[in-house]
């Protein structure tokens, strides 16, 4: 069955691989699964056809046969469980890899997103006052993550879907200087970006922008 995912027709990140379809593209590349991409405009995202797939009118979505999914974390977990390559065979290691997906989305990402959103909402007069608090929250999370990672290449043994999600979350802090405060985290992100599957996914997303689709 053909897999179809949705992505921005005009992404705010201008092809820098930060939009959440990048997470799904990377996961599919890691497991060697071909897929199609349907580009969606901001107007189309709010229309009934797209909201039937994603009730909140966002991207990405995932369609395979009669299955339709939204939320990048749920999609990546489904891909990882359905195809080899992103979850360990050992049940305990598998559970820990899934745990790191949730840690990336539920613990590390929220303050990073809140800090990032200030650039998109200039009318938020309170954002500047919150920046030091948000940066401290991020620093606390990153310090704990750095301590756990230590000098290991990945979070728990071999590369997994947990690492994929964590690298993508950390990439959202690019430009803040916060990741660079922990050389092992900066190196961790660089290792993720160096993976051939990541490179293919990034090139495909960037091609949408450079071809004029964005």
Tell how many strands the DSSP assignment holds: 4
Individual helix count? 9
The CATH class designation of the largest domain is Mainly Alpha
H/E element sequence? EHEHHEEHHHHHH
Instruction: List the strand order in the largest sheet.
Output: 2-1-3-4
Task: Please describe the biggest sheet, giving its number of strands, its sense, and whether it closes into a barrel.
Answer: 4 strands, mixed
What would you note in describing this structure?
This protein is of the alpha+beta class and about 210 residues long. The chain has 2 domains: about 5-85 and about 195-205, Glutaredoxin (3-Layer(aba) Sandwich); about 90-195, Up-down Bundle (Glutathione S-transferase Yfyf (Class Pi), Chain A, domain 2). The protein has 9 helices and 4 strands; from the N terminus they run E-H-E-H-H-E-E-H-H-H-H-H-H. The chain has helices spanning about 20-30, 40-45, 50, 70-80, 90-115, 125-150, 160-170, 185-195, 195-210, and strands spanning about 5-10, 35-40, 60-65, 65-70. It has a 4-stranded mixed beta sheet. A hairpin with a 2-residue loop joins strand 3 and strand 4 (about 65-70). Helix 7 (about 160-170) packs across helix 8. The longest helix is centred in the middle third of the chain and has 27 residues, at about 90-115. About 35% of the residues are buried. The mean pLDDT is about 95.
Descriptive keywords:
alpha+beta, 4 strands, 214 residues, Glutaredoxin, single chain, Glutathione S-transferase Yfyf (Class Pi), Chain A, domain 2
């Amino acid at each position: 069955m053909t897999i179809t995912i949705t992505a921005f027709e005009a992404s705010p990140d201008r092809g820098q691989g930060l939009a959440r379809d990048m997470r799904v593209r990377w996961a599919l590349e890691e497991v060697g699964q071909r897929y199609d991409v349907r580009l969606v405009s901001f107007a189309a995202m709010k229309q009934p056809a797209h909201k039937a797939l994603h009730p909140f009118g966002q991207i990405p979505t995932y369609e395979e046969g009669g299955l339709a999914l939204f939320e990048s974390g749920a999609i990546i977990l489904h891909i990882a469980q359905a195809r080899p390559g992103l979850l360990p065979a050992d049940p305990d290691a598998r559970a820990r890899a899934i745990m790191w997906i949730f840690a990336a989305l539920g613990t590390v990402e929220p303050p990073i997103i809140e800090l990032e959103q200030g650039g998109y909402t200039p009318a938020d007069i309170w954002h500047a006052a919150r920046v030091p608090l948000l940066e401290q929250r991020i620093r606390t999370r990153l310090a704990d993550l750095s301590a756990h990672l230590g000098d290991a290449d990945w979070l728990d043994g071999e590369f997994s879907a947990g690492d994929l999600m964590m690298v993508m979350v950390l990439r959202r802090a690019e430009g803040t200087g916060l990741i660079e405060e922990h050389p092992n985290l900066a190196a961790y992100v660089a290792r993720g970006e160096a993976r051939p599957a990541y490179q293919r996914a990034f090139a495909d997303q960037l091609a949408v922008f450079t071809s004029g689709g964005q």
